[in-house]
Design a protein that fits this description.
Chain lengths: 360, 299
């Protein structure tokens, strides 16, 4: 697979705050790449630098192997879908979509017959047929999202940047748009770089997931790898699926405030520049009566039940360890019916040591 | 139980909606009373008086069209009407030329709210001095021995002072533009400030260059500000008499100056005719400006 976009050592700071620190990133052509990062991780800055709205302090951006550092935004040919859609409020849906064709500096389409035809085609692709004459204030959020996408796609960019495109939509619509965005991209055969702060969105939509933390790329991989083998404790934290313990590793075990967890058999991941951490996924922990003891190859801690959250297919239960640290346990209801736990009563939390990840 | 008794007490005969309408109607009374007493009645009175019979020192309530015929046949008055329209168009154009780029800069390019406020306040500074001082200050500036002539003479650009700078239509236009420019800048800068920067970036991302973005996005989105600003400036310039009197040495007579003179010589009926003509002219101008943009969409 060829590379469409290449970032080399891109840095950007706003006054004292550095938003991007020497970012290296290759985006493959014809792929759906998601960029996951918490708020303030520099994801929007990264997109704005790629699009040319802001200049990096250092580093270089190359499109199809050619550096585009001095090229102004309107000559880059990169599509950008804004988080708030940024539709032209005074134009109809049709004129919003045809804007790029009619007004671009290079090779504008002046023949109304041609741009009308192309607008009609693209409106069909994104499911907006029949809405052309509407004002952009008279359509729903989902339709506005489609207009924003269609307006970008009509200029036939090879790369489309999407800045939290589903953030402004309600949950129902969001899950439908996930599938639709992937389908549209596949049909066009272009590259999408989708920025999001939502870990399930990043994992569900990306062929490749890039994790950004404090302005630096911390992991690049397919969703399965990122989910099961996060490269650092920070990545594990963003995934929102791991209980993390800090402590000191030794050859045999990992010393935490809650006891010694054996390392033997656990997955050891070398994460440079990070505090050592021990991670166990929410759904790998079993809740047993307080009297239960750990079996062979198992790890046990004791926690008091706090509360639980019912999510439909599973229940998320919270247990407080003696020092107040909260452990989350996820039980899938397809495996067993929900159990009721006594509030404030102690329970044994047991997991297989092979299920744990140790970051050293 | 408490709930049931409350519900039982409700008056079933009066619909809640009607009752609210009656309550809210009270809010209108002060405004309506004020407008009827001090706007509608005086205008009707003015139109009525314009048909009274005017003799040199007295005015009688015998109805006649003589005043109107006099206005539309006298070259002096028609000339004054034309002067008013001419100065209005010139000042409107001048405030737009000076004000639009200023507003574009303040409203769109300055993204720091504090700087934006400071710059807008700078535009208002001419207003902090009294009208009289502001207008009279132009005399040492524009006069034959004034600052501009002195500088031009010193630089050797002219050999004789330019007489036309002061006590001419030019000085009236300069003075009015300076005073009323802020009324153009304010509304336009406000509309510019409401443009989402992402919208401009989106246009850029779609391949449009600066002038294209200006013509297709910035200009249409700032048009309501231009119209509101133009209405402010037009209404004030059309009714002007003080600036034109002070800066033209009474050579430039706008309709407002005619009214002042007529009232001064107790010719109420004739002043009423000029007043009515001026009111109609303003109405036409405002109505015409409002046709350019549908302001209801912006509110």
């Amino acid at each position: 697979m060829s590379t469409i976009l290449q970032l080399t050592g891109v840095s950007k700071s706003y006054g004292e705050v550095s938003a991007l620190r020497a970012v290296h990133l290759d985006v493959a052509d014809n792929a759906y790449v998601t960029l996951l990062g918490p708020s303030g991780s520099g994801k929007t800055s990264l997109l704005r630098v790629i699009a040319g709205f802001e200049l990096p302090d250092a580093g270089s951006v190359a499109l199809r192997g050619r550096p585009i550092d001095g090229v102004p935004a309107h000559r880059r040919g990169i599509g950008f879908v804004f988080q708030n859609f940024a539709l032209f409020p005074h134009l109809t849906v049709e004129r919003n979509i045809s804007y790029g064709l009619e007004n671009r500096e290079t090779d504008p389409v002046t023949d109304p017959k041609i741009w009308r035809g192309r607008t009609k085609d693209i409106m069909e692709l994104v499911g907006l047929t029949g809405f052309g004459g509407r004002n952009v204030n008279q359509i729903s959020g989902g339709q506005r999202q489609r207009v924003a996408l269609a307006r970008t796609l009509i200029t036939e960019p090879r790369l489309v940047l999407l800045d939290e495109p589903l953030g402004a939509l309600d949950a129902n619509l969001r899950s439908r748009m996930r599938a639709e965005l992937r389908q549209i991209r596949e049909r066009l055969g272009i590259a999408f770089l989708h920025v999001t702060g939502n870990e399930s969105e990043a994992l569900a939509m990306g062929d490749v997931v890039v994790v950004l933390d404090h302005g630096a790329v911390t992991q690049i991989g397919d969703p399965d790898t990122v989910y099961n083998r996060p490269a650092s404790p920070q990545v594990a934290r963003f995934l929102n699926r791991y209980n993390l313990f800090t402590g000191q590793p030794s050859t045999a075990d990992f010393q935490t405030a809650h006891g010694r967890f054996p390392i033997a058999g656990a997955n050891v991941i070398t994460a440079t520049g990070a505090e050592p951490a021990y991670a166990i996924r929410y759904d790998r922990i079993a809740v047993k009566p307080a009297a239960a003891s750990a079996g062979a190859g198992e790890v046990r801690v004791e926690g008091a039940f706090v509360a639980s959250e019912y999510t439909g297919a599973s229940v998320l239960s919270f247990f407080a360890l003696p020092d107040g640290k909260v452990i989350e346990v996820e039980s899938h209801l397809s495996q067993r019916p929900p159990e009721t736990y006594e509030p404030h009563a102690p329970y044994s939390l047991i997991w297989n040591r092979e299920a744990a990840l140790v970051f050293v | 139980m408490a709930m049931t008794s409350t519900l039982g007490n409700a008056e079933p005969t009066v619909e809640p909606k009607t009752r609210r309408n009656l309550t809210t109607a009270w809010l209108l009374i002060p405004g309506v009373a004020w407008m009827v007493l001090f706007l509608a009645l005086p205008i009707l009175m003015m139109i009525y008086i314009s048909f009274w019979t005017q003799t040199t020192f007295t005015i009688k309530s015998d109805l006649t069209t003589a005043n109107w015929v006099n206005f539309f046949t006298s070259p002096t008055y028609l000339d004054s009407l034309w002067t008013t329209v001419r100065i209005w168009i010139t000042v409107l154009a001048a405030t737009l030329i000076v004000g639009y780029p200023t507003a574009l800069f303040v409203g769109l390019l300055v993204r720091n709210k504090t700087t934006q406020t400071v710059l807008l306040v700078l535009c208002v500074i001419p207003f902090w001095t009294s009208f009289l001082i502001r207008v009279l200050a132009w005399r040492p500036m524009l006069g034959t021995d004034g600052a501009i002539n002195l500088i031009l003479l010193k630089l050797g650009l002219i050999s004789q002072p330019i007489q036309a700078l002061l006590f001419s239509e030019l000085s009236v236009v300069i003075g009015m533009t300076q005073i009323y420019c802020v009324f153009m800048v304010g509304p336009i800068a406000f509309m510019m400030g409401r443009i989402d920067p992402n919208v401009i970036e989106a246009a850029q991302d779609l391949g449009a260059g600066f002038w294209r973005i200006f013509r297709t996005i910035i200009l249409p989105l700032s048009m309501p500000g231009v119209v509101v600003g133009a209405i402010f400036v037009s209404v004030m310039v059309l009714g002007e008499f003080a600036t034109s009197a002070a800066l033209s040495g009474r050579k430039v007579n706008m309709l407002g100056n005619i009214i002042v003179t007529q009232v001064g010589s107790l010719k109420w009926a004739f002043a009423a005719v000029v007043g009515a003509v001026l009111t109609v002219l303003m109405g036409l101008v405002v109505a015409g400006l409002l046709r350019i943009v549908d302001l209801r969409k912006e509110l």
